[in-house]
Each structure stands twice: as C-alpha cells, then as structure tokens.
Write a structure and sequence with these properties.
Blueprint (H helix, E strand, L loop, with lengths): L4 H21 L6 H8 L3 H7 L3 H25 L4 H18 L2 H10 L1 H28 L9 H15 L2 H4 L6 H16 L2 H11 L6
Length: 211
C-alpha cells in the first residue's frame, strides 16, 4: 500500500508526541492508550504505523540520533567562523541531549538494553568524535588552547548538559534553560579559548547580538 501525505503527517505526529512523552516520563509505563488519548487519535491509526510500542520506542530513538547527526553535519559545513560554529553546535546538540530525561535513559537501560548500548556507542563514536574533531580544528586555527585535555573537555560538556539542563533540576531552579546554557558555555569558553578568540567570543555572544 502506497503512503500518502496524510500518512506521513500522522506518522510524524506519533513520533513527535511519543518523543515528548517518552523523554519526560520514560516509556515503560506509557501505554498505547495513553498515546492515543494524548494524540486524540485511535489506537488503530497508531498501530497502522507502528505494530508495537517497541517499534515506536525504536523510531523515537532513531529520530533523535538522526537529528543530532544532521546538526553536526550542517554546523561543520556552515560558512561561519570557528567561534560561532563551536557555540552553535554546543547549544544545538546540548538541547537535543537535554531532552532525553532520566526516566527515558533509565528505561532504555532496563527495558531495551540493546538501545541503551547503542546510545552509549553513539555518544562515544558520534558525539565525542565530532566534538574532538571540532576541538582539533580550534587548536589548529589558534582559537583553542593547546594545553587543554580535549577528552576531558567533551566529558565536562556532556556531564554539565545532562546534569544541569534536565526537567528535574530546572523545575526547582530560579534559572531558565537559556540562562543555564549561556552560563555553562561562558564558563567553558573562558577556560578553553585563546586570549584573542576569548575577546571575540565575549564581544559576539555576550553583547546580546547572538542570543
């Protein structure tokens, strides 16, 4: 049976809603009835696109990792200076990572260990590799300090994003998600940029022009 535009729209809605619910609440305790009520859609329609909840869980995971992969590709190819490229990739990838809340990550590990292992491999092979390549470019261009341990830097960045920018922390905090991102990046960039590039960063991103 050929797919129509309406089929594609319905499938996209299911994946988007499933992503929002799974990332915030986990997926183990979310039923297809819950999804149908949230979507205001019949279970029959959902099952037409995803024969099981497990299929939807996998598609949500694939869609998330595909978006992160695309962000790296687009940012690296963008015709901008290194400072803006690094800032934009840290913001965009950070927001994608922070959407995956702890309930979701715990369910991945417990109920779909295969996907849990895939996510760990994705972090190592995709996120680490791309950030390390970007940091190497920064050192080559004279924008980043040569004495900074890049492996540790990537781990600090990911730990800060996952530890601070998540719903459990933000709900009881006085700062917004944008304020958290700016503070994390300001502190990180102040430490890793060379003197000339640090001045450029402060002028470009702390002036309010690029917020």
């Amino acid at each position: 049976m050929s797919r129509t535009i309406s089929d594609d729209v319905a499938r996209e809605r299911i994946v988007d809603t499933g992503s929002r619910i799974f990332f915030s609440r986990g997926f183990a305790k979310v039923s297809m009835d819950d999804l149908a009520r949230e979507l205001r859609m019949s279970k029959k329609t959902i099952y037409r696109h995803f024969s099981t909840k497990e299929d939807l869980v996998q598609e949500v995971y694939r869609a998330k990792t595909a978006r992160i992969h695309k962000l790296f590709q687009e940012t690296v190819a963008a015709k901008t200076d290194f400072t803006e490229k690094l800032y934009r990739i840290c913001i965009s990838v950070g927001k994608e990572l922070s959407e995956m809340g702890q309930p979701y990550l715990e369910d991945l590990s417990v109920f779909t260990p295969g996907l849990g292992r895939e996510l760990e491999a994705f972090r190592r092979d995709e996120i680490y590799r791309n950030f390390l390549m970007l940091f190497d470019d920064g050192v080559r261009l004279g924008a980043l300090r040569q004495d900074v341990n890049k492996d540790v830097l990537v781990q600090i960045y990911i730990s800060a994003i996952m530890g601070v920018i998540n719903p459990r922390v933000l709900v009881n905090s006085s700062f917004t998600i944008d304020e958290a991102f700016r503070t994390i990046l300001d502190v990180m960039f102040d430490g890793i940029l060379t003197d000339a590039t640090r001045s450029h960063y402060r002028k470009k991103f702390r002036s309010g022009v690029k917020r």
